[in-house]
Amino acid sequence: MNGVDSMEGMVQDHEKRIYILEENQKETNDAVRLIQKENQENRNSILKLENSVLTANREQREIMERANKEQKDILEKANKEQKEVMDTLLKSVLDTNRQVYTSTEQEKKRQHSLRELNAKNMWQLALMVSSTGGLLYGLFYLVIHLLSQ
Q1: Percent helix, strand and coil across the chain, each rounded to 5?
Q2: What residues contact residue 100 under an 8 Å CB cut-off, 6+ apart?
Q3: Per-residue pLDDT at 85 exceeds 90
Q4: Dihedral angle over CA of 56, 59, 63, 69, nearest 10
Q5: How far apart are CA 91 and CA 89, in angstroms?
Q6: 45/53 Cα distance (integer angstroms)
Q7: pLDDT at 1 over 60
Q8: How many CB atoms lie within 10 A of CB 130?
Q9: At a CB cut-off of 8 Å and minimum separation 6, what does 147 contact?
Q10: How does residue 102 score in pLDDT terms, banded at 50, 70 and 90?
Q11: What's the first-to-final CA gap in the chain, in angstroms?
């Protein structure tokens, strides 16, 4: 009966190994399920985080757009006010200049001042030419030219 005992021992040993493998497979399956569950939880956490970031970005963009619009409105209003002030100032300057130059008395004074300035400049030019000898040369040339004719 030695062969039967040995066969029965082999079967029991084989069954024992199968039982151990089944237990190991069960533990492995449990570990895989746990990892899958953790992965799903991680995916859910990542999705929540992405949604939070997207929401925060959207809110931040809306805030920035509102701030930009407010700044643009303020600048447009300031530019409009500045243009109105500049137009008023320009009109005032032009009106003042028109009043000054339309007055005949003022125009006469202006013409007199221009004549005085013109005469002064002519004398300065004559003195410059004569001081360099140009006037004397011109006179001699004119005299010689008239005598040679």
Answers
A1: 95, 0, 5
A2: 106
A3: no
A4: 140
A5: 5
A6: 12
A7: no
A8: 13
A9: none
A10: low
A11: 171
